[in-house]
Write a structure and sequence with these properties.
The protein is an all-alpha fold. Helix content is 70%, strand content 1%. The chain contains 16 helices and 2 strands. A two-stranded antiparallel sheet has the order 1-2. Strand 1 and strand 2 form a beta hairpin. The longest helix is centred in the last third of the chain and has 34 residues. The chain is globular, with a radius of gyration of 22 Å.
Length: 371
């Protein structure tokens, strides 16, 4: 993206910073946002805050992580699609995503299941988990089905939005909640159609975040927002901190829904991203570097830390060994990040082999083969 003025610019580094912040929020969300999930031996020492703990409140706010990942997906895919080969880009993204996920599922999660005596892994269950249709083997892999559905449908949205005004694009964002409401009114006794309705509602709940990300990319809304914020002068930073506090309060304590079918998370996500990327420059550079590093491993961490929950919750007590909340998060990262590094190495090697195998031979070799 070309820098046209001396203000805010949403760069690749910022994208990774947002993903790094999102995965930290997810860890807080899962580790501390659901006290009812904790098993025997899994407990932590928190900071009391009214009737709860500070970790619990941050964990509730952390639910915004899904909207952040969805928004970044739409934002990034817009620029990827703009280079051409829209459907090819979706296929490539999907293949890379699935290979990484399958390595985690088959290389780590299924062996853990077998070691723990979870032997009810039928072929049908494994196949359904491969595409996130079911997500009991990798507990938090519901996003797999949503992400694949996004990659299938996003080229169509891109075509529809590419040559239209911002107002028309906004109408596309308004359509999914209406579709979700219509689907929700359908009643069925069929287990199959009940599952279809559930998956469709899930898709229409989160797709507005993706579409808003595309709109921000297409119309440069981050840059336009920054131009408006710059008029506040020295009051800009205090104003952004106040807005961030309001978002935190609304998400952590209110968690409202518009018309029962539209979550404000897509708006929270856009504001949070702008505020985060504006304020991160006030911190030492290494703080951004840490978030960039975590952002590069965010999807693997997402799936890997599910080993401590639900079906394999026997392992949960080991995640909480440090007892103190901040140390628990660091400990989980120390477990999952090295595994992610190894998985990235294997994934890169797999794609390198594939690319070398599919690369056409040069003319010299071709001549040699043909005598």
């Amino acid at each position: 993206m070309k820098k046209e003025y001396g203000g805010f610019l949403f760069t690749k580094r910022n994208t990774e910073i947002v993903k790094g912040a999102a995965i930290l929020l997810m860890l807080f969300h899962h580790l501390f946002g659901f006290p009812e999930w904790l098993t025997d031996g899994a407990s932590y020492i928190g900071f009391p805050l009214r009737a709860n703990t500070l970790e619990y409140v941050i964990g509730k706010f952390g639910h915004i992580c899904v909207a952040l990942f969805a928004f970044i997906t739409g934002y990034g895919m817009y620029f990827s699609y703009r280079k051409g080969g829209v459907f090819k880009k979706s296929v490539k993204k999907g293949a890379e995503f699935l290979v990484s996920y399958w390595l985690i599922m088959f290389g780590i999660m299924i062996p853990i299941n077998l070691i723990l005596g979870k032997t009810d892994l039928t072929a049908a269950k494994i196949f359904a988990n491969m595409f996130g249709i079911e997500n009991d083997i990798v507990s938090f892999a519901w996003y797999v089905r949503f992400y694949l559905a996004v990659l299938i449908t996003l080229p169509l949205f891109y075509r529809l939005m590419s040559k239209r005004s911002a107002l028309t694009a906004a109408l596309f964002i308004a359509l999914p909640p209406l579709a979700r409401a219509a689907i929700g009114s359908v009643r069925t006794d069929s287990e199959f159609w009940g599952q279809v309705i559930y998956l469709a509602q899930e898709y229409f709940l989160w797709i507005p975040c993706v579409l808003l990300g595309m709109c921000f990319a297409k119309y440069g809304f981050f840059e336009k927002t920054d131009r408006a914020a710059e008029r506040l002068g020295i009051f800009k930073i205090p104003f952004l901190i106040i807005v961030l506090a309001i978002i935190f309060y609304m998400k952590a304590y209110k968690n409202i829904m518009f018309f029962d079918n539209l979550s404000p998370d897509f708006l929270y996500a856009a504001l949070f991203i702008y505020i985060l990327c504006s304020l991160i420059n006030l911190l030492p550079h290494f703080a951004g570097d840490i978030l960039v590093f975590l952002g590069g491993h965010s999807m693997n961490i997402w799936f890997l830390h599910s080993a401590f929950f639900f079906r394999t919750s026997e392992l949960m007590q080991y995640a909480y060994l440090p007892r103190f909340s901040a140390l628990i998060v660091i400990w989980v990262l120390l477990i999952t990040v090295p595994l992610s590094c190894a998985l990235k190495f294997v994934t890169a090697h797999i794609f390198r082999i594939f690319e070398n195998g599919s690369r056409p031979q040069n003319s010299h070799n071709a001549g040699t083969l043909h005598g």
